[in-house]
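lol ok so funny story. i was supposed to be doing the assay writeup but got distracted and ended up predicting the structure for this chain instead. priorities right. anyway since i did it might as well share w the group, maybe its usefull for someone
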Amino acid sequence: LVQSLSRHLDAGQALATGNTTLVLYSANDWTSGDYGTGAATCVGAWLGCEKRSRAATVLTSEAGTAGSGGATFFVDADGRQRIAWHAWRTGVDGVRVRTVFIDTVDRLGL
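and the output, tada:
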């Protein structure tokens, strides 16, 4: 499932949708820009899992962030399926801070 994200795995999360389970996992050193989130789809609970993302990761470092990972699924107050994750962001004083981001599951493009 991992390929290029192979040093460390953590923060596994699963979202059941019908007869399919979407699994997100973080990999690599969370203190670095190499940390990212991969995805797999499993039939039923955990049978026949396949890597889902076209690239190595579905949450990666973007402009102004590094080390995106720790994805967590949740349902907001309006009943929408959401995802939260964290990444490093450089503050105005130049100090890196770990920041939480929240978006819709559709953001993953899966």
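DSSP finds no helices and seven strands in the chain. The chain has a mean pLDDT of 77.
back to the writeup now i swear
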